């Protein structure tokens, strides 16, 4: 009787299964200490609270020791069960104690390599390497992260993974991360780097006020856990016995503190900022004081640039530049090309990044119809009128004048929002500008547009307007031309990507 597993007569036998010729490696052993420093801050704070409160009861010492032991044990098991390797075809990562995860990224689909060193990493000379493919905009779902390896090895991996066709490192001893033949790091071209004169834009960015708001929210949550209710107490005080002097002084104090705090926040985020073009056709952004960050993205994945001008930064003639690219998405600051800086620097960076003589975002834009001004004023003014009316009926007498005083400023913002609207088209780019509080001027490659999204609300139809969005696989995914005339919007879409929208226009014309 023949063996049922033998190949049928006349057919070749199946080839033997072979493993890629590359050894598995572990993350650096120093992660046993770094992981608790980076991720166990809350638990360590609880340990210190237990140790240094009370009169040294035995249960506090036992609980503290058990917490520290649990943190270290968890770190050890994470390190012990995590391994990775780099083959000619892919990067693989296996991790997990109770639930094993096996991740693999084909090397020919790697689009970005992000190196991050938090304070704990920097103390021990380590760096986390995040490898992105540009598939999704959710961190951790479009690639994998090696957290962490030595900084030298991280830099070597960055060059290795972005240089196509470079062989992986040779085998190392099992369980150890060892260095290999160094990959030659070619010289790079500096496009832009930090100028201390840019610090004047830090207070205009209002990052200090955002940080204070986040801190107040955090403290409020902790206060609620201890039975305190500061928000409820504040509202009761405002409705029962408000003091205009105290309210005004508090508001001024918060604003001053926010302006002062903005400078160190800017320094921590953007110290040692440097934008370079690497010989391997990638753009690299490095920045950070306490937590250092290095993001590399292939130039062929760049689809455009977004010049963003927050209202106060724009008043100071400043802006920041953001890359419209696949592989980074639009969340967070991974796509940042230039921090708040003079507008001339933003245009220079745009020219150098896009390799053009004239920055497309500086082109004269076609204004939108007057009906768009009416819609903008309604959207910005009417809500404050409604709020003022509601406060006049249900709130103390001192409350309603506040939104009334805001109405003129809201009208100015609405008018400025209309002035910001515009669009243009050249041989390579669709240019669109929107918004007032953070004015955004986007130059999007016409070849990167994959579709159109047309929206006409009830009030837009009555005004002969529409909002047309250019969909793309990069950046935010869709970039809008807001409140444009119906005819202008359809002609713009048809001219930007010929034959994409034309069949639908022809069908409508036939029906009419």
From TrEMBL:
Quick one: signal sequence residues? Answer: none
Membrane spanning residue stretches = 32-53, 59-79, 201-223, 243-267, 376-394
Q: Which UniProt keywords apply?
A: Membrane, Transmembrane, Transmembrane helix
Every copy of the YdbS-like PH domain together lies at 79-158, 418-487
Mind telling me which InterPro entries this protein's record contains? Answer: UCP026631 (IPR014529), YdbS-like_PH (IPR005182)
This chain's protein is named Putative membrane protein
Please name the source species: Lentzea fradiae
Organism ancestry: Bacteria, Bacillati, Actinomycetota, Actinomycetes, Pseudonocardiales
